[in-house]
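Appendix B. Raw example, untouched.
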Amino acid sequence: MSRPQCSRCLRPASHCLCALIPSLDSRTRVLLLQHPSEVNHALNTARLAALGLKNAQLVVGEVFDDLPSLLNPPGYQARLLFPADDAQPLQAYGQSDEPLLLVVPDGTWRKARKLLHLNPLLAALPRVTLVEAAVSRYRLRKAPGPGALSTVEAIVQALQVLEAPTSFAALLKPFEALIDGQIAAMGEEVFQRNHGDGDLG
């Protein structure tokens, strides 16, 4: 028998995170394109980001038929937050800059690349990247390298750069509670044995 689930954050009702999810305004619009395999993931950080930002939209799928309209909201320039040799480092908005539609693929690196492959319009977008990505707080999964962040962490860092000095740190509160809850569930000893060496390499 399945446990009761919160229909908003999709967590078990006993571990609902909604009380920790903020409601933040942003000049930047965030479009999260989530691979279907991530929807039922225990750490669905893209959903947390979409719920915590008023100017965000989460769309689940592999092929997005309505991509032309999704990528062209009036008054925004679309940019893909994804590594590439020619990716431009994100910088704070100037006074007259048009705000960005920050498009964020959500999935493992392999699934995110598949989304780009299946959606040529997405792959064709100019790319942006974080100049100095901080160390991930995602202590439950070995990152593939320095600067590899969970989806919500990458979004928070991008918005902190674009909209400085505005802080978006409140978006990380439910994420941190989620991580702490997972560690508590597995037990400190198991966590230390499997994840506690601090190596993100």
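End of appendix B.
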